[in-house]
Design a protein that fits this description.
Layout: E1 5-11, H1 30-38, E2 40-42, E3 45-46, H2 52-61, H3 85-91, E4 95-101, H4 112-116, E5 120-124, E6 137-140, E7 143-146, H5 156-161, H6 173-187, E8 193-198, H7 230-255, E9 262-268, H8 298-301, E10 305-308, E11 317-319, E12 323-324, H9 327-335, H10 350-353, E13 366-370, E14 373-378, E15 381-385, E16 391-395, H11 411-424, H12 434-446, H13 452-502, H14 543-548, E17 570-572, E18 576-578, E19 599-600, E20 619-622, E21 628-629, E22 636-637, E23 664-669, E24 674-678
């Protein structure tokens, strides 16, 4: 028989009661329900821990929480010499990959998943980084790559760790991870593969608190108008988004004719959370159980588990046997044709998965521990030492909500279950990260006190080094700001491109309404303008027009981070706004409402085909211009060979560029590519252009003759 592919979909804080097939009444999960209808649903499946890192370590190793080297959220490291599922699949000749949230440990190296044996990893390594659904960077095979999301200005910690709430939100990480997972299936359709697909949905962004950022989504979709808090709309959309991903994976397998040879397993790392402003009771995420994440009550550790493969797994089955995450190690080994190696606490589920229940081994009991809490389940009976240290005995067949303590009526059973603790619990010391061990050893070996003279010498050396390094550091800071500036321009380009797609390939108009050169704006607004044909006053143009139609959000993303100046907007007679190619969004009374730092090159082109250009490139937006003012008008003269520009000077004849220390400017071109342009020294004030390198005058490039204005049609 052909080797079976395995896809294990692991959700993050999805509750037992969040799925329709497990009793959810409000939210619908049709694709996941279909997995259950066509496969086997398990009603007594457990996580090893009520939090993510120990639970994921258990999946990796086959160990329960009394034997794991990671038992608490802050435990840093799973040593590489532990046997794990990645090694199993490598030995069996599978291509393996983990996509999404790895989350095994705290502070581990970026390539830890690769060190464990996975062939590839894309997404998050650290669990806190995975809180951020619009992170500034993700990992691919241990290396950072940057997204288009931007933290708030000055949020150095988010740039370094990825932890926080983005200010500019463009790239939604669940979409990126899903796309990568689908690509992996496509690329390895001719090889046996193991895909560990770990979405970070529906976890909260804890750093967003109880604001709407606590449950970050790209949009609320059909839940937008529900009479719920935004946090709950976000949670509902997250559950729906998980279901959509499941549907896409199933469709991809069918498209590639792999659906009959691929086992899909679906679960969650622990019970539902009550974070980010979401309440467990809003949608009964814990189902009929008491407790949620961080609790060893049923709601914190009993999780959904579904197995699906049309040619191998019986359809429409519900299994009530006791299973938990340590069973996955032996199950994967047997499915891959291998024998489990090393210690583990699980059983193989292969018999029940393939419909051979008679030969399925059963657990005598399951054992759990977390931060002083302990639980043992044997049949219907459950021993629980809760977070307060109080001991209980519950009969789950009669009391699923764990309300009635029956230990006084059943002292023998209580004692038997409590005795299991001594058998299953092993004391442990969390492993330190390898590099920390090395540093500790070196410091111990060579540690001694410095003399006063030695300290003074060190201080002097630091001072000398600082004098060399400060210019370098300042240059690095400037480079980072320029990168942020470039990201702004790329966002503006994408928004303008979307605008163009919706208006038959035409681009937004550009005008500066200057007094001296009326031909430059003549008839620009005569035809095709979305707001009508008679709007010579309070015009929108350039990026302001794009923003006015909600193609881009308005904020600091329209300001160059390396300049505190803006393209000033002047009013004439109180109602007509004037600006150098850069129109502000306006209040009805004519006062400017929004400023931008960037110049738009509307004079270079009027649609994507047949561009008027120079040097083979056509600038869409850029961020610098000569800050020269037209004499006697107070209106800033600008270069129409540049695009969006950063700031204008207050004094006539000021010939310094306003941003990036006069070194140059960022530009994004109409085909989407972007680059930095160095500005030659000795640039003259006025309408400087990059082709001629001197001051321009009206008519130098034909003025009114650049192209027939009648064909411009408002630039739409």
């Amino acid at each position: 028989m052909k080797p079976v592919n395995i896809i294990f979909i692991l959700c993050d804080d999805l509750g037992w009661g969040d799925l329709s097939c497990y009793g959810q009444k409000t939210l619908k999960t049709p694709n996941i329900d279909r997995l259950a209808e066509e496969g086997t649903r398990f009603s007594n499946f457990y996580s090893t821990s009520p939090v993510c890192s120990p639970a994921r370590a258990s999946i990796m190793t086959g160990l329960h929480s009394g034997h794991l080297p990671i038992r608490e959220l802050n435990d840093p490291y799973l040593p590489n010499d532990y046997n794990n599922i990645a090694k199993v699949f490598n030995k069996a000749g599978y291509v393996s990959s983990i996509q999404g949230k790895y989350g095994v440990g705290n502070g581990q190296q970026h390539d830890d998943a690769l060190q464990k044996g996975f062939g590839s990893h894309y997404g998050y390594n650290c669990m806190k980084h995975a809180h951020n659904f619009f992170p500034p960077w993700l990992l691919e095979n241990g290396k950072k790559f940057f997204t288009r999301n931007l933290p708030p200005e000055g949020d150095v910690l988010q740039w370094e760790t990825g932890v926080g709430v983005a200010e500019t939100k463009i790239d939604y990480s669940p979409d990126m991870v899903e796309s990568k997972a689908l690509d992996f299936i496509e690329e390895h359709k001719n090889n046996p593969f193991f895909l560990y697909y770990c979405t970070n949905l529906p976890h909260a962004n804890n750093e967003g608190g109880n604001t709407a950022d606590g449950m970050e989504v790209d949009h609320y979709g059909e839940f937008k108008d529900k009479p719920w808090k935004d946090n709950e709309k976000g949670f509902a959309r997250m559950v729906q988004r998980i279901d959509e991903s499941v549907g896409k994976i199933v469709d991809k397998l069918k498209e590639l004719n792999l659906d009959q040879d691929t086992i899909i397993l679906f679960s969650s790392d622990n019970g539902p959370h009550e974070e980010g402003g979401h309440k467990v009771t809003m949608f009964d995420s814990a189902g009929p159980f008491q407790g949620y994440k961080r609790s060893l009550h049923e709601g914190g550790i009993r999780v959904p588990f579904i197995a699906h493969c049309p040619s191998r797994i019986p359809a429409g089955q519900v299994n009530s046997d006791l299973f938990y995450f340590p069973d996955l190690m032996n199950t994967f080994c047997e499915l891959a044709g291998l024998e489990a190696e090393g210690p583990n606490d699980g059983l193989s589920m292969k018999p029940v998965l393939l419909g051979d229940e008679e030969n399925q081994q059963k657990h005598a009991y399951l054992y759990f521990e977390f931060e002083g809490q302990i639980a043992v389940r044997r049949g219907a009976m459950k021993y629980l030492k809760d977070i307060k240290g109080e001991e209980h005995l519950f009969n789950l067949d009669e009391d699923i909500h764990e309300d009635r303590d029956i230990k006084s009526d059943n002292p023998e059973i209580f004692a038997e279950l409590k005795a299991i603790i001594e058998k299953e619990h092993r004391d442990y010391t969390a492993y330190a990260l390898p590099e920390l061990n090395d540093l500790k050893h070196k410091n111990h070996r060579y540690a001694r006190k410095f003399s006063l003279i030695e300290l003074l010498v060190v201080i002097a050396i630091i001072g000398i080094l600082a004098s060399f390094l400060l210019p370098i550091l300042n240059k690095s800071r400037s480079k980072a700001l320029r990168t942020s500036c470039m990201n702004n321009l790329k966002q503006m380009y994408l928004a303008t491109s979307m605008y163009s797609e919706d208006f038959d390939g035409k681009l937004p108009t550009a005008s500066w309404n200057g007094f001296n050169n009326p031909g430059h704006y003549r008839n620009f607004f005569s035809n095709g303008f979305p707001y009508g044909s008679s709007i010579q006053k309070r015009q929108f143009f350039g990026i302001a027009l794009v923003a006015s139609l909600d193609y881009i959000n308005v904020g600091d993303n329209l300001l160059c981070p390396e300049s505190n100046k803006i393209d000033s907007v002047y009013a004439k007679n109180g109602d007509e706004l004037l600006s150098g190619f850069n129109a502000a969004l306006n209040n009805p009374n004519g006062s400017p409402a929004v400023y931008s730092s960037y110049m738009y090159g509307g004079y270079f082109f009027y649609e994507k085909e047949g561009l008027f250009g120079f040097e083979g490139e056509n600038i869409g937006y850029n961020d610098a211009a000569s800050p020269y003012q037209n004499s006697g008008t107070g209106i800033p003269a600008t270069s129409y060979y540049q695009c969006y520009f950063d700031a204008v000077g207050a004094n006539a004849g000021d010939d310094t560029l306003a941003c990036h220390e006069a070194e140059g400017l960022n530009s994004v071109y109409i085909d989407g590519h972007a680059k930095w342009i160095n500005v030659p020294s000795g640039v003259a004030a006025g309408w400087w252009d990059f082709k001629r390198g001197n001051s321009g005058k009206d008519g130098a490039y034909g003025g009114q003759g650049i192209w027939p204005y009648s064909t411009y049609q408002g630039g739409l």
